[in-house]
Every structure is written in C-alpha cells, then in structure tokens.
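Lecture notes, unit on protein representations.

Consider one protein chain, 218 amino acids long.
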Amino acid sequence: DSEDDSSVKNIKESGLDYIISNYRSGGSGKVRAIATALDRFRDFEVYVVADTDIRASPDWLVNLIRPLSLKKYGLSTTFPYFKSVGNFWSKFKTVWGFVGRGMMESKITVFGWGGSMAFRKDLIEGKIGEFAQDVSDDMAITRICKERGLQIAYVPEASPEIYSPDDWSTFKEWSIRLRDDKIWYYISGIIMPFFYTWNLYRARKTESITWRGVRYKL
C-alpha cells in the first residue's frame, strides 16, 4: 500500500519488482491491489493471482494456465491442501479443505479460488471498475466469468500446499484426499457436518465481516 510497508524491504532483498496499490475503489485491500495491476498492465494475454502463503510445485504455473488455451474457459483455478502444523484447529482446517475440493469438482459449485487462479485478458476487459468494488476477489472473478457465459477449469495438478498453524481464532476468521493417516483427521471428519451447518447459519445472518483487522459491510 505504500513504500513504508514492512514487506518492501524483503521484496527488494529478493530482487523482485513491485508496484504501489493505489486504485481508488471500495473493495478490499487485495482487490485494490489486483485492480491496480490490471489497470496498469493492460497488454498481457493472461493474468495470474497467487497468495503469498502457497507452496507451489515447479510445474504449478504451466498447469494452472494450460486450460486457458481453450476458449470455453474464462478462468482456471485450483484448491490447496492445508498442511497441519499446529493444534486441533490446524488439523480441523485440513479436513475443512476437503469441502472446498469437493465444490471444485462440480461444474455447479466450482469457483475461482484467489490463492491460485488465472484468467485471460478478455475476461476482465471493461470490468475492472466493477471488480474493484468487491470485498472478495474470488467471488468477483467467478461472477464475471459466469456473466460472460464462460466455464471455470479446475486443475488439481496445480494444487499447492499451505502450511496452516491455525488456532480457534484464526480458523474462525478464515472459515477425500488424506496425505497423513492421523486419528485427528477422522475425529474432525465426524464433527465437520455439525460445524459446517453452524457456519452456514452464521453466514446467512452476517451483515459485516472482519478480515485481517479491517471491517467490511456486506
């Protein structure tokens, strides 16, 4: 957001280029950052959005953008495996991630996951201003893709890992392919339907959310 941001020092030491997020909009910080890049760099054929906490394989990028060679796809995406590195809620998040994976495998519920998604220039042309007003980049890009009558490609081969040291507080804010055979995951699987129902009930009545210290009205 500014040259004074604490991340700038690390970015410079890594030899990476960066730009300052300055797109004027009512959207979230991430949405403004993406809108800034889209507005400033209009000549690329494909754009890729990736969260900084993913651990991607060497062929992640080529797998992610490959489906976009087919014109029927406006958006290509994947979903992570949450690697537990903490207490019970960290393990619970691993199982929770399977819900997202299940949604991705259906043409009805698949969505663009903002942690790893790619889209062609023609998807966002004329829509940057509209996109920039959203709280969620995931929902905004998914909506635009559907409005244009294009499909979303789910690419499990591009699935990254996210090391997840969650506690109850961080899991609550964040709210079958087992890679580790641990009893915690099976316990989590038993109570998951009850927690998921509670989560849907709460979401239905939610008028605002707090994400990383910023409150957004829905």
